[in-house]
Write a structure and sequence with these properties.
alpha+beta; 14-stranded mixed beta sheet; 14 strands; globular; 338 residues; Aminopeptidase; 2 domains; disordered N terminus
């Protein structure tokens, strides 16, 4: 594909090819440095972790100039997902960008053209397609996406926060143990718990190790609870900034929705981890449709608005956005915010 005006430089829109990462990084670091005063350049090692080592795959479409420069990118972090027990994929739209100098090349923004090519290549239903594409865009990106790329608002995202002393846990005979790695039983735990969740991203050992243990940017702490020797729940914690506030973050949660002893044991560990890290609050995120949303409030967590809003577009008539709003389970760990 090339630009219509014959006098304008030609450009090509296509999927990522090995070797494009060098031009992608150059464009990423150049473009985002212009708009974000606190921007830190992305290193190649981080890019390779994010886009080459993800067990769920890679999603990148590009607009490239004749000289190989990246003019625009539409990218996603894919997630293997179960919808009503059936395998499919989602992708979180991230790192989308357009070089301001490219805007004069064509009447229709390159960002939109690349986004449409991305949708056509990866959107659909079935095990290898992205049934849902979603994101937490800045307002300018949402306006463009709403107008030209089918973005729809699912919800204004809220968070659950509690001062450590406010959380009132019921007694439990179970105790969470801090782990150095996700054990092999993580796969079986996810398979059991996936039956409770009509829509949930795969949290098997490979995915969890990639997301948390191999992450080059952050250090996470992981704990597990066992009952009669069987792994019954997992939680992930780190101290960090979310929504412009430094807190203790309960990043991921893999536990039976109605199992109060497991919930109490994991939360007791998270509270202790927050204290040792010098945090005053524990913050987490669930959709309002998840049982944890009310369960955590009953333990002392309060609802706070965030500056984020969740948008998505679905390629399934059965699992449409209304269905997703009611049944899709996610945590902070599903996002790239923590």
């Amino acid at each position: 594909m090339s630009s219509p005006p014959s006098s304008a430089p030609a450009y090509e829109i296509r999927a990522y090819r090995p070797g494009d990462e060098h031009a992608i990084l150059a464009a990423f670091n150049r473009i985002f440095a212009r708009v974000d005063p606190g921007f830190h350049p992305r290193a190649e090692a981080e890019w390779r972790w994010l886009y080459e080592r993800n067990p769920s795959g890679r999603r990148i479409f590009l607009a490239l100039a004749e000289d190989g420069r990246v003019l625009a990118q539409y990218a996603g972090i894919p997630q293997r997902v179960r919808l009503d027990g059936e395998p499919t994929c989602f992708s979180q739209s991230v790192d989308s960008m357009s070089d301001p100098e490219s805007r004069r090349l064509t009447r229709e923004p390159l960002f939109v053209q690349v986004g449409r090519a991305f949708d056509a290549a990866f959107g659909g239903t079935g095990p290898e397609k992205d049934t849902l594409m979603w994101g937490l865009p800045v307002p300018a990106a949402f306006r463009i996406g709403k107008k030209a790329l089918k973005y729809e608002l699912i919800r204004q995202q809220h968070k659950l926060c509690a001062p450590l002393a406010r959380v009132a846990l019921p007694p439990t005979a179970l105790e969470a143990e801090e782990l150095h790695t996700f054990p092999p039983e993580t796969d079986a735990l996810f398979e059991r718990l996936a039956r409770e969740r009509r829509g949930v991203a795969v949290r098997d050992q490979a995915q969890m190790r990639w997301r948390y243990e191999e992450n080059p940017n952050h250090r996470y702490r992981v704990a597990g609870v066992r009952r009669a020797g069987e792994l019954a729940g997992l939680a992930v914690f780190r101290k960090g900034s979310f929504d412009r506030v430094e807190d203790g973050l309960l990043v991921d949660w893999l536990a039976p929705a109605g199992d109060e002893p497991v919930r109490a044991a994991l939360l007791a560990w998270a509270l202790a981890a927050a204290r040792t890290e010098g945090c005053e609050r524990l913050t987490t995120l669930f959709p309002e449709s998840a049982p944890e949303w009310l369960a955590f409030q009953r333990l002392g967590f309060c609802v706070h608005a965030t500056r984020y809003f969740l948008v998505a577009w679905s390629f399934s008539r059965v699992h449409d956005l209304l269905w997703m709003q009611r049944h899709w389970y996610y945590t902070l760990g599903d996002t790239d915010l923590a």
